[in-house]
Amino acid sequence: MAVDVGDALAATPSKLFIGGEFRAAAGGETFATINPATEEAIAEVASASPADVDAAVAAARQAYESGPWAEMPARERGRIIWRIGELLRERVEEVALLETLDNGKPIFESRYVDVPMVAEVFQYYAGWADKIHGEVIPVSAKALDYTLREPLGVVAAIVPWNFPLLLASWKVAPALAMGNTVILKPASNTPLTALKLAQLAQEAGLPPGVLNVVTGRGSVVGNALVEHPGIDKIAFTGETGTGQQILRASAATLKKITLELGGKSPNIVLADADLDAAAKGATMGIFYGKGEVCAAGSRLFVEKSVAGDFIDRVVDRAEKMVPGDPLDPKTRMGAIVSAKQLETVLGYVEAGKGEGARLRTGGDRAAVGDGKGYFLRPAVFDQVDNRMKIAQEEIFGPVLATIAFTDEEDAIAQANDTPYGLAAAVWSRDIGRAHRVARRLQAGTVWINTYNRYDAAAPFGGYKASGYGRELGVHALEHYTQVKNIWVDLG
Ligand code: NAD
């Protein structure tokens, strides 16, 4: 059922969510969140100060140490988390609409990918709430030794703007399932769905203080969270540079940290691949989500013998991804998230040309509707050298660098020649060869004959400069618990 934009915005809070209440920032400050498809402000959202962060930490700490959450049986916790998932499914149209208005991604993606997966993540972790337990260790006949898996305490989840609610769910759901309390800080470009989540969590019966949402600038709110002595763990997704800053700033208080950072993922097409499937996979691998995807297949390696024809196919497909109104269900290429990001991406297109790569298509602004909005035609470069800036730096936009290789060894060497290691893919009909290549790629996820596949149960995270720790699956749970060992003398 279609939801009216005005109704959806009117039903969404714009204030901080602290201790179970929506309240204005202590200083009364707000900031405008902009719809990148129209360049218009869609809401005025509270801009938190360090004093608000103090209040959120106090509320989260109290909820962790006393009150219903601390006493609640794990299964009951799971039921509330499951209910959050149910509410997300019931409100999918409204939540998807907010995500698209704030981020510019096609409604097709928010409606059929982002929000359903968020619901899935909450329900997946709801199931884990009562299934994590300790063990008895046979140390000696004269002693009983056992372990408890305890929560960490107060977790701050700091998330970027590309998958605002999805990346929040990857942190909030496992943290809550393991009995922690959470302070969620969305990116200032995309604060609305985090506030909507707070509203739904409250409706689902989550006790006050268990989930708090503080909106505002990363340099103020994010930094206050990172330095705060009352926070036990930071779960961060964002740029590698911000991750490094967080590590430094959190050193004084020795917080537990998980980092999901940038990427420059290689997508390798061997000559024996199903080239039609690979061309489709390569196009979606980079242009899905406007290329604002940490795991985007931004470096396409193609075996020389098939490179000419293959790149033609990719160019052809790219040209069919015409930027359009994100609210139109037929649109597959939305608006770049912000004017600043558009400028960054255009700068990389110029850098690519300047370094001698050949721009085969796109890379320029597209006029959609009345000409407003940050729309960009998807860009494909060929004749790229892996040492060029467009092949080494994360662009975080719809720009593909295609690179030819001579053989398997050359492909692996070039693919691994990057500071990053988030994801990779290999396309081949020779399954043994594909597995062999997959083992040698330095990446946290490798796709074979597919791209951009995710599941709540499948771990995701980076090698090298792409981060520490894993999200999703059972692997995430160890980042939200700590082990206590207990000795009992049996004298
Ligand atoms: P960003 O690093 O600028 O911001 C991420 C979050 O950190 C925002 O909420 C921001 O307000 C906050 N922040 C900024 N400065 C801070 C500071 N000094 N202390 C604490 N918090 C601070 O990243 P972005 O531009 O929002 O997102 C794009 C980046 O995210 C890309 O590099 C992309 O690869 C990465 N990303 C990684 C993954 C992954 O799973 N590895 C997923 C999505 C995005």
Radius of gyration: 23 Å
Question: What's the CATH H-level superfamily name of the largest domain?
Answer: Aldehyde Dehydrogenase, Chain A, domain 1
Hetero compounds:
nicotinamide-adenine-dinucleotide
Number of structurally distinct domains: 2
Count the strands? 22
CATH topology call of the largest domain: Aldehyde Dehydrogenase, Chain A, domain 1
- Overall pLDDT confidence: 97
Structural class: alpha/beta
Task: Give the number of helices.
Answer: 16
Descriptive overview:
With 491 residues, the chain is an alpha/beta fold. The chain has 2 domains: 5-261 and 466-486, Aldehyde Dehydrogenase, Chain A, domain 1 (3-Layer(aba) Sandwich), CATH 3.40.605.10; 266-455, Aldehyde Dehydrogenase, Chain A, domain 2. The protein has helices at 5-10, 50-65, 68-71, 74-90, 92-103, 107-128, 164-177, 192-204, 218-227, 240-250, 275-287, 304-320, 339-354, 389-392, 408-416, 431-440; strands at 16-18, 21-23, 30-35, 40-46, 136-140, 143-151, 154-158, 181-185, 211-213, 233-237, 256-260, 266-269, 299-303, 358-361, 379-382, 399-405, 420-421, 423-427, 445-448, 463-464, 467-468, 481-489. Nicotinamide-adenine-dinucleotide is lined by residues 158-162, 167, 185, 187-188, 218-219, 222-223, 226, 237-239, 242, 245-246, 260-263, 294, 394, 396, 422, 462, 466-467.
